[in-house]
């Protein structure tokens, strides 16, 4: 087995193996730059005046409804914690292949998985190496590098705190009680999955993809990355390239947020494109309910005539199994449970 990183580091790579050549790389029909990406000042949400907090909650609701995506600034995660997390994950990918190899070819709910592409049963692979770690409610971490455990535990704890506050704001924006999502989705004991993606330089970026258009499975995904761009989201039917502000956290709504809100807040389709110059590193934490929680539209957001339930109930575990065992394509997984 090889990694994309190992393939690139062999040197003098002028083409890519056929398994990485995509039959049709999505056209990058980029929306005009006049579009302003929603930016949320987290400090005004947590310590602002009542009026400031009310405005931020309104803005979060608008971002969830119109974009499914927003950028959070002035949040509670220290810059040093973010920087250390990026360095620690980079150090993991720098390990020898046999050291990382103990986590390769694991099953979906195994504590730690490392690999290349997406699904080894598929004919095509994506131009990325990944590390996926279940970090909550039971914390896990690879043995090496030695600093990874302490750093990732601190970062993931901080990310959960930010997510919990965002869940409160989203609940209120929907006209629900502030603790609604945290309580109904059992967030305190809920699932948090750390997903680290490494996208090495690709000699043929026009025929490869880091990750194809897809939506995330959870409620919210929080993302940080190095200074190399590559994330694109769909807005108004076109791709918008995201250039994060320094020290910001990117947040997108997932399929389970769309299910819970009965379609009021829709999950956002996004993709990762690659380049031929620099390595992109992204660190996401997917926040969801407990694995055995059956998620269906909130009764308060269902009206038999005007807003009938749009999705059937499904456990988070079952949904993740369906998503990970099928082709990663747009909202194809969510389409399976539409009523």
TrEMBL record:
Highest taxon listed in the record's lineage: Eukaryota
GO molecular function: metal ion binding; oxidoreductase activity, acting on paired donors, with incorporation or reduction of molecular oxygen
PROSITE patterns recorded: FE2OG_OXY
Subcellular localization, as worded in the UniProt entry: Cytoplasm; Nucleus
Gene Ontology CC annotation, any one: cytoplasm
Entry-linked Pfam families: 2OG-FeII_Oxy, DIOX_N
Domain Fe2OG dioxygenase: 189-289
Keyword Iron: yes
Keywords from the named record: Cytoplasm, Iron, Metal-binding, Nucleus, Oxidoreductase
Family: Belongs to the iron/ascorbate-dependent oxidoreductase family.
Annotated function: Involved in the regulation of shoot development and salicylic acid (SA) homeostasis.
Name recorded for this polypeptide: Fe2OG dioxygenase domain-containing protein
Organism ancestry: Eukaryota, Viridiplantae, Streptophyta, Embryophyta, Tracheophyta
